[in-house]
Amino acid sequence: MAAQAAVLLWSALQSRRNFFVNYGPMAFVTDFLLNAGAILAATTIYSSSPTTLNLLLILPAFALLMLPVKSRTRPKKPSQAVAANGTLENKGRQDSLEALPERPFITHYRGSMMVVTCVAILAVDFRVFPRRFAKVETWGTSLMDMGVGSFVFAAGLASARPLLKARGAGKSKTIEVSWIAAARHSAPLLLLGLIRLYSIKGLDYAEHVSEYGVHWNFFFTLALLPPFAVVVQLLPQPLFSVHSIALLATAFYQSILDGTSLKVYVLTAPRNSILSQNREGVFSFVGYFGIFLIGQAVGLDVLPRKNIATSRIVAQVSPKHQSLVRLLLWSAWFSVVLFLATSHKTFRLQVSRRLANLPYVLWVSAFNCAQLALFCVIEVLVFPEVYSATDKETETRRCRHATSQVLGAFNTNGLAIFLLANLLTGLVNLTTDTLRAGQGSAMFTLLIYTGALAIIATTLRSKNISLKF
Question: Which end of the chain is more exposed for a tag (fewer CB within 10 A), N or C?
Fold first, then answer.
């Protein structure tokens, strides 16, 4: 909850004091310490006392929220003119609200997830990072096990936006165009995977073969997601929803794991062929693809301003609360199914990130939906004006006011920053004996590393540079 607690305090400072309106060095440092520093502290020096850290963030936030909202300088109202039919119309008003609004809570979720990921990939090499947060070998859960799954879930969530835009415009891509677009997204990731493979083998960098295999790495998994997503998009959507395809695929994969010798093969087979050398990466892709599709399904449901497929429960609440209710329903659904899958009274399945099995997919999905719901609660309570805008210009202005610059920067160039974080992690490990570093030295290194990433990300965003892969 450190990420949500930090965003809550940031939101209180912004809504009650307009602290980040004039975004100078002091505002950036405060933004960074809250939304990146708190996450760094939660995974290191405050890892054994998370309640203390959360209280240090939440109590000041509540105190600030007790204050009245500080008035901001309002822009002049747009001039009005009488239309030909005698009605008034605003000259400065935009034609209509965007069908796909930019929601700050989505930005905060994706930005925080990226910060946690970048912090963890270097912090894990220091003793200040608890071993219980590192990836488990085969069975069980940890922070970093959740991190890789959350990265894929967030990618699926983001992939829903171009699909919704195409549907809203009444455009349907041809098969050729879809494959070309998928290849354009996959090619840079495939290249990054090859570069990582070459650098690890060439520099004799420490690696865990049981994570993805001898040659496979996470970039190869990411590179395969777009072309497989195209296959799903070609299926008749009313008959095969993205959500149902994800669950059916992962359930079938789980049945193969339990009903055949595949599980034993993935976990214990000798590495005497290309497939066996990379068996973890090859077969776990099914689970990661399921996570990607579930993230996409959640995005297709939550991102639109108006969703035709609205359930009776959602239809009964006000529009500004509908996204929150949808996320709570998604979280409850995956939590219940996860409980049934892992309960000793039912299927007794165990979570395995190495296999990316059904319980792992459900665990990642339930957690991320809950995280999104918590960020959405903060937005609804602290920035309710975001949902009351009547034109695009006002809504954009209010959304920017309610969005952290640091988290927005990590979200805008997430994959590029992730790549840079990997390069910096390698550089630190080649120049520093991380295992022998004391707590002070480790925290100083991690703070400089995280600060460098934040400065670069914020600079790119301030110059409207978006590096897409």
Answer: N
